[in-house]
Design brief:
The chain is α+β, with helices and mostly antiparallel strands and 404 residues long. It contains eight helices and 13 strands. GO terms for molecular function: metal ion binding; sphingomyelin phosphodiesterase activity.
Length: 404
């Protein structure tokens, strides 16, 4: 009822950059994160890139006293890296893995093997829908080959939130979205779901300038990647919205600023984001809205659909190229088989049969056939996913344009 005491909710979000054998001083930083979380006593902790389940187990043991409820989300070849710690009971959990997540042959990036996902938990004290997530990394802003995939992920995330949040009172989302605040993907996500940005809504802010979470002053960041952005970039977010008879206000937002107190290293190559939200019940349900003018949202959907279309055409070209390569490899194998049968039948016996060269060529053709077939299957699936997303966006755009 109106006038009930306000619930004060403190949220901690961090991309931990805890990759076994690769991340610098990983175990030391994980212990530091656990010590800080135990000391600060947040209500909800959303972590990404905790790739080692042993690291999660260590955190779970250390934080059992102040965060009795937790969950680790498993997906992909090496895991999703997502986990949640909470002071309040977790009623249910769900993991949704995006349909597109980079390319398996881009081994140096590895996003495909991670199984990028969104982990969802339902909690009590009002019915919270809490999401910890990570979208595909950008790697190169000038030639962003992964933009169509990231837009598909943003669209699927927005649709997922709209369909799963109907029974919730409050939606809380935290994670590394790998998008700048004005990128089309973040505008699509916020516009389609009505989520509000804690940085933009906060009454008080303290931390890195402009709320940046990837900054040049961090000793673990790649300085060359931030040359176009001398102040850094903001790609880690806490987003929220009230759905039923609640209102949510962000009283304070903070980011860490370099090394942890008393230490010579920061928690991660990303800065942590900490928000203090005030949640209060109102007299009447406020209802769910898109939160953005339909005409503006239609422009955003149109822009996203255009980029997805560009990715669709690129995927179709790659599918055609890999299919043609597979056909040529198959023809080469058939010619070799015909030559071998001719030799066995006694044709061309006046010359010795080059067995070694024949076998090497056969193995090469077979390898090309298997590789090209695999790529053709993968890009066929990519075309289907991009085509399906484009159709969904077209339908959504028609609804927006026809709305009175």
């Amino acid at each position: 009822m109106e006038g009930e005491p306000t619930l004060r909710l403190r949220i901690f979000d961090l991309n931990c950059w805890a990759i076994r054998y690769l991340s610098k001083r990983r175990q030391e930083r994980v212990r530091l994160i656990g010590d800080t979380l135990r000391r600060e006593g947040f209500d909800l902790v959303l972590l990404q890139e905790v790739w080692s389940e042993q690291d999660y187990s260590d955190l779970k043991v250390k934080l059992a006293g102040c965060y009795p409820f937790s969950h680790y989300f498993r997906s992909g070849v090496i895991g999703s890296g997502l986990c949640i710690f909470s002071r309040y009971p977790i009623l249910d959990t769900l993991l949704y893995q995006y349909s597109l997540n980079g390319y398996p042959y881009m081994l140096q990036h590895g996003d495909w093997f991670c199984g990028k996902s969104v982990g969802v938990s339902m909690g009590v004290r009002a019915l919270f829908l809490s999401l910890s997530l990570q979208l595909h990394a950008e790697y190169c802003r000038e030639k962003d080959a992964y933009l169509p995939h990231r837009l598909v992920q943003a669209w699927e995330l927005a649709q997922f939130i709209r369909h799963t949040s109907k029974a919730a009172d409050v939606v809380l989302l935290g994670g590394d979205l790998n998008m700048h605040p004005e990128d089309v993907g973040i505008r699509l996500l916020r516009g389609w779901t009505g989520l509000r940005d804690a940085f933009a809504e906060a009454t008080r802010f303290e931390g890195c300038k402009n709320g940046c979470t990837l900054v040049p002053d961090n000793c673990f960041t790649e300085k060359s990647e931030l040359l176009p952005f001398p102040l850094g970039i903001r790609i880690d977010y806490i987003l929220y919205k009230a759905i039923s008879s609640f209102t949510v206000k962000c009283d304070e937002l903070k980011t860490t600023t370099g090394p942890a107190p008393g230490m010579d290293i920061p928690f991660s190559d990303h800065e942590a984001v900490m928000a203090t939200l005030h949640i209060q019940r109102q007299g009447q349900p406020v209802g769910a809205t898109l939160g953005t003018a339909d005409l503006v949202l239609a422009d955003v959907v149109t822009e996203a659909r255009t980029e997805v279309g560009v990715g669709l055409r690129a995927a179709q070209r790659q599918r055609y190229s890999s299919g043609r390569m597979a056909v040529l490899a198959l023809l080469l194998l058939l010619l070799q088989a015909a030559a071998a049968l001719g030799t066995l039948a006694g044709l061309g016996s006046e010359q010795p049969f080059p067995k070694l060269s024949f076998c090497l060529l056969a193995f090469l053709a077979l390898g090309v056939l298997v590789l090209a077939t695999g790529l053709h299957v993968f890009h066929t699936m990519e075309v289907k996913m991009l085509h399906g997303t484009e159709d969904q966006m077209r339908m959504a755009l028609r609804v927006l344009q026809e709305r009175p």
